[in-house]
Design a protein that fits this description.
Helix content: 40-55%
Number of strands: 10
Order of helices and strands: EEEEHEEHHEHHHEEHE
CATH architecture of the largest domain: 2-Layer Sandwich
Strand content: 15-25%
Shape: elongated
Radius of gyration: 24 Å
Largest sheet: 6 strands, antiparallel
CATH class of the largest domain: Alpha Beta
Distance between the termini: 22 Å
Number of domains: 2
């Protein structure tokens, strides 16, 4: 372990110095990813080649892969991307962090024990068909559309903007209704659920679930059943286990230590 700056990946329970093989540190540098312990806790870190890391695909993947490597053996508390200890004594700063926030980290690690984050995205296969359904089901939209049909675009500029807003509002209502149906059986299995914003008009669900490991198989089967029941209409993207990004995000302000 060199005495230069330290790049932080996650926090774990660990009482001794150790390395995690099979993963390349952020920045593509040679060297290892290792634990900096303090009593019962440790920060997983690597030697920092710079004080700041750009948000690039390569750097983000390196950050994530290091966390995933550690997670193969231990529960992790992910540290926000780009966190670098760069003071006069970075190792002392890391240990001070673990000491000052011990109770918080211990509590979060206890919450994560025996659980895993699983992620699910659901997207409509045919966006055009969904829009047609909205027009067919929403009489106000249909009438408004028909009232401007055939008129010059320049003469109905504001009406077309309003029509677009009406369709967007109806699409959001439809998305929420269908998301509720898809999420219901999964919520019953998960300990916690986070619904993230949908990205684009096709996305119905963008959710993360904290699931007890002993119920992972049950959760997998529930997702498989959803796929069978809705495969004609919806495409599912299911990932995990992954580090609990949606439930824990450790932010470090070195000035507060």
């Amino acid at each position: 372990m060199s005495q230069g700056g330290k790049y932080l990946y996650c926090i774990i329970r660990c009482e001794e110095e150790r390395a995690f093989g099979g993963v390349t540190p952020i920045g593509g540098d040679s060297g290892s990813v290792y634990a900096i312990p303090h009593q019962s806790l440790a920060v997983v870190a690597s030697d920092a080649g710079t004080d700041e890391y750009d948000i690039t695909r390569a750097n983000m993947l390196a950050h994530q892969r290091a966390q995933e490597r550690v997670m193969q053996e231990l529960p992790v508390l992910p540290v926000r991307f780009g966190t670098v200890a760069k003071g006069a004594s970075p190792v002392d700063d890391v240990r001070r962090l673990l000491e000052r926030r011990r109770q918080e980290f211990e509590g979060l690690l206890s919450e994560m024990e025996g659980k895993a984050e699983l992620g699910l995205k659901a997207l409509w296969k045919d966006e055009g068909a969904v829009f047609e359904e909205i027009v067919a089901q929403e009489e106000s939209i249909r009438r408004f559309r028909d009232s401007i049909r055939g008129k010059p675009p320049e003469a109905t500029h504001f009406e077309r903007i309003r029509l677009g807003e009406m369709v967007k509002e109806a699409l959001e209502r439809k998305r929420k209704a269908e998301a509720a149906v898809l999420l219901a059986p999964l919520r019953r299995i998960a300990c916690r659920t986070v619904e993230n914003p949908a990205m684009g008009d096709r996305m119905v669900v963008n959710a993360a679930f904290m699931v007890e490991k002993q119920r992972e198989e049950e959760f997998d089967q529930a997702v498989e059943l959803l796929d069978k029941e809705h495969s004609q209409r919806v495409t599912f993207k299911y990932v995990g286990p992954v580090p609990p990004y949606n439930f824990v995000n450790i932010v470090v302000n070195w000035l507060d230590l």
